[in-house]
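Components:
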Amino acid sequence: MKDGIENLLDKRLIVVSNREPYIHKKIRGEIKCERAIGGLTSSLDAMMQSFNGIWIAWGSGSGDKEMSDSENRVLVPDDNPRYTLRRVWLSENEVSNHYYGFSNSVLWPLFHNFLDKVKLKRSYWNAYRRANRKFALSVLDELNPGDLIWIHDYHLCLLPHLIRNENEDSEIGFFLHTPWPPWEIFRTLPMRREILEGLLDSNILGFHTKNYVENFMQCVKEEFNCPVYMGKGMAEINGRKIRIGDFPIGIDAKEFSSISSFKRINQRAKIVRRRLNVRYVVFSIDRLDYTKGIPERLKAIERFFEKYPKFRKRVVFIQVANPSRTKVEEYKEMKRYVDELVGRINGRFRDFDWAPIHYLYRNISREEVIAYYLASDVALVTPLVDGMNLISKEFVSTKEKSGVLILSEFAGAAGQLNDAILANPYDFDEVAGVIKRALEMSNREKNRRLKVLKENVRNYDICWWLKKFFEEWIR
Amino acid sequence: MKKYYSSADVQKLIKSELKDFKFVVVSNREPYIHMHSPDGIKCKLPTGGLTAALDPAMQACGGLWIAGGSGDADRQTVDENNRVQVPPKKPKYTLRRVWMSKEEVDRYYFGFSNQALWPLCHNVFQKPSFKKEFWDGYKHSNGLFVDALIDEIKDEKAFVWFQDYHLALAPGMVRDSVGIKSAHFWHIPWPPWEKFALCPWADEILEGLLGNDLIGFHLKSYCVNFLESIEKILDADVDQGSGLVKYGGRKIMVKPFPISVDFGTIDRFAKRKKVEKEIKKVRSASYKFIGVGVDRVDYTKGIPERFLAIERFLEKYPGYQNNFVFYEAGAPSRTMIPTYKKLDRDIKKLVESINWKYQRGYWKPIRYLEGKLEYEKLLALYRTSDVCIISPLHDGMNLVAKEFVAANVENTGVLILSKFAGAGEELKDAVLVNPYDVEEFADAIKHALDMPNEEKENRMKNLRLAVKRNNVYRWIRDFISEAVKVL
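Structure:
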């Protein structure tokens, strides 16, 4: 992880994100420390472990308060302390109005072009501002001259401005892990100006793809009527220059390929195969979120069995859905709908010894996920929109040979993974067709495609991403 | 350049510039509908600015209009070639009707046109439904229009003007027929390219439209989105500056032409005695302030948002309770589609709950007038209202805003208009609001009602001048003049 970045980073790093990398949970009177799942926190954690520094995040665990000192700090990982985690406390009201409210019922759907899911309430915006101020106070409290402050994601859009207001010369980087929408979508947000002003007090702003950068630049231009330079990746506002660029995030490809050679995981994969007892296994895993296109995928599977009956009893589709944001009404509704669809499709096609869809509504461990990757012939990854999508990259780096990736053309990753089979998730016939094509693909073609994909994921891995971002920042 | 254009100018232009061509308009909606009634078959003119505006042009040049037959007496009134001469009393041109079965209408009109393309092109609350059978039906019905067109033209030289989103594929289908030049006007917005790309058949739709020689949209920004879609999805050669597209060895022009209303006629009608009588009735209840809104009941129109803003306004500024009445004329539309049915129910429930919360004695804040309003009553409301509120979440142009302005002959009304209506770009003297921002919206209502008379008058005079100058005849003239260049 250190390679190539250490000479860039002679300064102390402060990472700020909403989610914390380590959560202390009280379970039956005992406090346990859990490492957060999710691509972002785990890759940044590896970086922090090599560079020490401070991570500031919302303390969301039931045992977090007890385990933090009077300064709200705790050293992590607890078995081998390498860096400081500083926790920010949010009240219940702030959690429901800042996190579930403005962040996940307004910005999340808006940034994914799902205007129909935006639910704006007055209380949301106030809580969002309050929570951002709390984060700002903690950052300012920890800040030493010369530190680099790296802020992550849509929960903290106001933070760059709040910090710069108090500390003019701060070095602030911001990375947005979601898409950025076209101006015509973004302009509907009543507080759009504050959001943009908040972000534009960064020194550097990063997005996953060129398209998001273009959209963002367009928004800045329309809102402030100020010069933006697409080619140079720069905007100029009130005499300040802000660098704006695309930095497609990668995964720790080495780690994935090494875990996938573990004996116990391969054993597990074999058991999955044996138990399912079919010719082909197709795998999907998503947070249960309306951007992931799960209902559309299920309908495409239904179309597949309708159109190509010879595949009945020969293919099993595994769909893992991780419970997410279960307090938000839209997510509850989505769950009901997915449950119903799975029931309907299984009811329509199943036989006493075969069901077309194996549906798991729960969180599964990383090792289990990798075992499923290994056990599958095809990964079916078809989000309706996705900032990047790391599942596709994980699958590719796990498979040694003959895995086929079907990827939505609307995932950020589609720009890099050209050798996947790309499909439009809204087009059920097309998706049904490409599933058939993937299953019938010759080994030669499978291996050729996989090889190119693996190379891409390996070359543009998480270290490359970090290095590129810091190079651009410190340049 | 002339200051104000009239229907005579349009007639002259078509007669001189298109004299070698047969002038053909193709649209989904027909300009004359025959209906059964207790007194025999009656001929009705549909409402809707477009048909009314193109009719005089057709009468002038005696062309041909091809449209879907929708009246229950339409079949009884055509000849064996499905033709009828219109207007019935004084025939000037030919209307050729295209027949569709209920299944065909379900797939083509209620299906692909209104459940896929309509929500796809408007940036609002509704996910498009891309069903294969809708798409197949859309293709099939576009083919029916094209069959009628080719049957009529044979090998004459013709200039064909396609209207709107129902007929995106027809231009591509007629491309191969010799002697046809065609132009298309798209009456709804064009979305950002990444949204348009969601449509599984995005490339076929674009190629269909590129069968034209000229394509028009209301606004520059729709043109930009359209050109970007062509560039990114079809990899075509596009010049954003001039609007020129090179595709398949042909050149296609893309330009903005903001549509408008027949200012002169509305202005004249609004001054009639009958309208004044209606005004007396409306004002008899002696509430100080009257507001008006007129819409097709559609999820793009922001009707619930408007009512929520009115509620917030009454809550924030209680002094206006018992003093302000808002008339909303909502015309039910596309009710065969479940979303529209639900919206209709939701709106009625919302009106009921707001009225129940505030009503005192005879006073209720919102009067919901369902169905189509008589023309005199509508003009009376336009002329006497203190404020007209038009708050679409997204709208290609919005002609109600321009109608209100044309009918507000005493310069006493204020127009509150959504920033997201195409008309917002021309009508700068309206009070512009973000309909999603309930606080700003509520304050705008207060601002409009409290505005000094002098300011109201100044703003309305400017608005009226803008609509008078840029009236519908100017729109037709500009479009035809541009089309002539590509003939």
